[in-house]
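ping. complex inputs:
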Amino acid sequence: MECISNQELEQLIDEVRPYSQYGKLVDYIPALKEENSEDLSVSIFHVNGTFFYAGDYLKKFTLQSISKVITLALVLIQNGEEAVFERVGMEPTGDPFNSIAKLETLKPAKPLNPMINAGALAVTNMIQGKDVDEKWDRLLSFVRELVNDDQVSYNERVAKSEYDTANLNRALCYFMKQHEVIEGNIEDLLFLYTKQCAIEMNCSDLARIGAVFAANGVDPVTGRVLIPSHIARICKTFMVTCGMYNASGEFAIKVGIPAKSGVSGGIMGAVPHKCGIGIFGPALDEKGNSVAGVKLLEKMSQIYGWSIF
Amino acid sequence: MECISNQELEQLIDEVRPYSQYGKLVDYIPALKEENSEDLSVSIFHVNGTFFYAGDYLKKFTLQSISKVITLALVLIQNGEEAVFERVGMEPTGDPFNSIAKLETLKPAKPLNPMINAGALAVTNMIQGKDVDEKWDRLLSFVRELVNDDQVSYNERVAKSEYDTANLNRALCYFMKQHEVIEGNIEDLLFLYTKQCAIEMNCSDLARIGAVFAANGVDPVTGRVLIPSHIARICKTFMVTCGMYNASGEFAIKVGIPAKSGVSGGIMGAVPHKCGIGIFGPALDEKGNSVAGVKLLEKMSQIYGWSIF
Amino acid sequence: MECISNQELEQLIDEVRPYSQYGKLVDYIPALKEENSEDLSVSIFHVNGTFFYAGDYLKKFTLQSISKVITLALVLIQNGEEAVFERVGMEPTGDPFNSIAKLETLKPAKPLNPMINAGALAVTNMIQGKDVDEKWDRLLSFVRELVNDDQVSYNERVAKSEYDTANLNRALCYFMKQHEVIEGNIEDLLFLYTKQCAIEMNCSDLARIGAVFAANGVDPVTGRVLIPSHIARICKTFMVTCGMYNASGEFAIKVGIPAKSGVSGGIMGAVPHKCGIGIFGPALDEKGNSVAGVKLLEKMSQIYGWSIF
Amino acid sequence: MECISNQELEQLIDEVRPYSQYGKLVDYIPALKEENSEDLSVSIFHVNGTFFYAGDYLKKFTLQSISKVITLALVLIQNGEEAVFERVGMEPTGDPFNSIAKLETLKPAKPLNPMINAGALAVTNMIQGKDVDEKWDRLLSFVRELVNDDQVSYNERVAKSEYDTANLNRALCYFMKQHEVIEGNIEDLLFLYTKQCAIEMNCSDLARIGAVFAANGVDPVTGRVLIPSHIARICKTFMVTCGMYNASGEFAIKVGIPAKSGVSGGIMGAVPHKCGIGIFGPALDEKGNSVAGVKLLEKMSQIYGWSIF
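pong. complex structure:
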């Protein structure tokens, strides 16, 4: 079965919206504390180009950790698998996304995967460009291409707020610099990374990006190849094994689709060969995932038969 | 594309057999040290009932960790998801399969998932039965049903060898008993667990079990439901997120199918809606997976388009 | 200045007794839950043979972890330093006394010191004797010699209670057996260890043992050498660096004398060249030390100038 | 027995000098790689003012971790015990001196003691002064007062070399800043800390500082109180429980005196009521202590009866 109307989605979000009350807004990024915890919007973008939405689907939010998948795709395109996986591993971890302890235990001190902060910082460190501005331009161009919208940009206030409070990420960076996993100026890297996290769009834009991954890298409207298929597949694999923070395993069991969440409350889903999904619901569970968003995906996965297992 | 002849498979195993030289036999289970490290056999069992094989497909081997998936299915059938996941988690871990350290950190001291030893012991502890014999009978009956062969049994010598050297598993058990994750007599549990690990079959038998999981629990020949579909799906999910020890993430990227390996050199694959796979190749890589077996699955996945991502 | 009367001590314990209300009885050893948390007794035994006491100084209690120092002395006498420190380290640890996680990290899996449970079990495992009974006889003889009292024995009910609930210690033992740090039958070892912990005496007896350590191994009354001086010194060193659980560092700063506590509420002190101290006060702080006992030692150390620093 | 001539010391260093060949120069601080690994010098400064020396006793070296004790004394004088121990603990640790993992486990993220890098950075962060220059002036004045020499200063080249490569310390700082254990500008702190570590003197100067600690804070020549006695005692206690890196426990057993080492190869000893000791021998064992220096202290402790146990 397939979603065929906005009404269907409207009904679904009405059903799951009450779950928002069990979550709360992220508290460690000052600029994100001001969201309305009842907000909920969703969009589905099929690989055939049709799309549906519900809720305030024009409401913008920042990508936060969702951006890790996109940067990974770009960096794999630019550097190749071998170079990337020399610096960051492929294995899920039972530790929190911002943990530093495991890095000290591992020899070499290589982050376990690109979805935890250490790994994502190492990935962003590999974006090519002669300086931080050129690196940013390449990333932003790539995002705009995926969304097919030249207006997509980032939220300066959120970026600044995160940059100013990024001491844990600073600690991760200097630790990895010591162990030669990352290189160059750390403040530049954090500046780039916090801008990346602050890239802003609405759930329809996000669904469109998800659709590119779902279609193995092909733009569902123009038919252009934006991401080589094997790289799109790698990204979807990471979304399954470590896309939903420390609840990735449970999400794989209950929902069963590649997805990546961010502490802004966004979730990007990519159902292979079928559709991309964009969700925004800022009330988070204790693992950092949108409470209502996860519930919505669980329902949609059952109704539309999305599980890959 | 689909495998349509034994010759195809024979050719494939000839191609990958040389990789065996980069691996070595498991060394900590005395009875398994005597295998021939060049051995390699494979079988594919399609959900429509057709099957193919290559190599010494009648050669028997013990399931070892592969048995964890089967016991999990049985215990989920007997106790329901809620009861099972109260005692064992759903999350992958970056730690080794036999690690005890994480248990001490976690509150409660619940094993992260049923594929690491701690979790598997907790699962075996939930097999129902009035005593250890009845529990064993139920497990063996279930395995025989899956294979559709009443002669399947276990290797007594291997079981004894593992029981006698199971001190790490004893440590895990007593630690979990202290924290009330498991209950009852520990020696009984280890006796049952080591018999479970020593269940013996050939790669064709194993492929047939894989096919039941691939077909969402339906016997591909008789059409009978042996495992409820939602439970078959849970098992396949664990096979993806944590089925290949500490190389599960890499395997998901390179092969992309649900699979579970054992230190005997066996691998069971389950390609959703398509086929089950059984492989035996006792030369292991440093993570504990069959070197040639993993290489073979990588090739087959590419040729037959098996990746779920 | 030196203590010269029982009255002095009576006054001191009256002053510190109220601190007992901030502590509580140990809760994980069933047989120890029945003590009176207001109890407080103390004895000082000078190396010249004079002694003083206050409170119910005939009240018996079990040694628990205090026994670790005595067994260490015996095992060093029997096996020599080299053999002992091949199996157990000399370094303090920041981890809890019953932790297993560090053992997994260390290569080899050698307990950091003989005062944590893992190390103490490894030490007890080295008591010489053809069987567990002979080992026990030797330990008990040694204790009786130190106390100079043939009636000293152990509390059977406490020993049994601890044996029955010793699953964490079982886990430690099997882990160390796997790594060849300990050898032989584990249940025998735990039987011996729990008897050792249940050795029972009053605070005057304990002060007398402390005095032997204070006098570098010489019996303060008979003048006999019960412990070679270099071994007595080793024991006192461990008492300073790791004798008071995870509060050893703070105790060294605030009190500054070699001391070993047990979860029964006992503390044995050994002020080099001056005196031994025995204290019983079963209300424990969160680290497992007698609240009133620690306070009392702090006061006595100031008044009598006991700090070794 | 007491040292009464330079000849005695000359003979002792001739005996232990060969041990230098089992050690090697520190390798992670570029500017320290150029020392002569055969160097060995020693000085003893008795609390009565007499002093003896041997070897190239005018050869200067940087204090490195030895400076941690001096800064701790200053900061305790300036801020009081309560304020200091709110930010840094009193317990020894089994982890390496530069480890960050334990900080993540502890709640709050308070360094276990002031002798590991995390704790020392937190201590330096508490030096009072309106800016980094004033803080440095106060520290340097304090050091000059202890040595009674206004010419004592720091090695700029070593300080710069350490500052430039201080990425692990940066990681520790940002981690602690995140957890509000330290405050203010991190680069300023590291600038101050690396100057502190690069304070330079010879072994006679160092012995004189040790003598102040040995004499409970009193200058052995002028009789002035430079450090309140309870603070001198606290410092000596930390020297025993955690002054010799991860070999503090072994050193306490084999030598038994308060001592602090640095990776430059310096060791400062403080034998309560007797003397201070300064040693320089840049060939280090694997724990980071001067090989010949430790051996020398072991011999001297036996000959002169220095053990406090």
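Strands of chain D lie at 41-46, 51-55, 61-62, 153-154, 199-201, 259-261, 266-271, 275-280.
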